[in-house]
Specification:
The protein has 118 residues and is α+β, with helices and mostly antiparallel strands. The protein contains 4 helices and 4 strands; from the N terminus they run E-H-E-H-E-E-H-H. The protein is globular and about 45 Å long.
Length: 118
Amino acid sequence: MSQPKITAYLKTYCGWSEGVRAIFRKYDLPYEEKDIIKNPAFRWEMEQKSGQPLSPCVEINGTMLPDISGEEVERWMTANGLLTPSDAEPDAPIDRACSDAQHAAMAAGQVGKINFLS
C-alpha cells in the first residue's frame, strides 16, 4: 500500500486535532501539519480549500475532509483502501473535544501539563 499524501489543518492544542494526530501516530503515517493557530495564513488556506471555518480539516490525496474527527479520518481512510484496520488503541481519544480541565490548563499557560488521555 503506498503512502497517501496528507495535509492536516489543526489547532495547536485541541482535543479534536489531537485525535487526528493520534490516528496518524497509530498508523505511523507521515503528514504535513499546518497549525491554524500559529499561522493565520493556514486558517485562510483551510477555509478556501474546505469552504468552511471549522477544524480539523484533513486533505488526503487531494480530497478535503472538513471538520473531521480522528475516528472519521480512520474510517474514511479504511473505506477508501488507504489503511488496513488495526485493533491497536490510539494514544489519545479520537472522538472528542478537550475537557474543561484541558481548557483550564491551556488558559493558565500550562500547555506542557495537558493530558489528552483524561
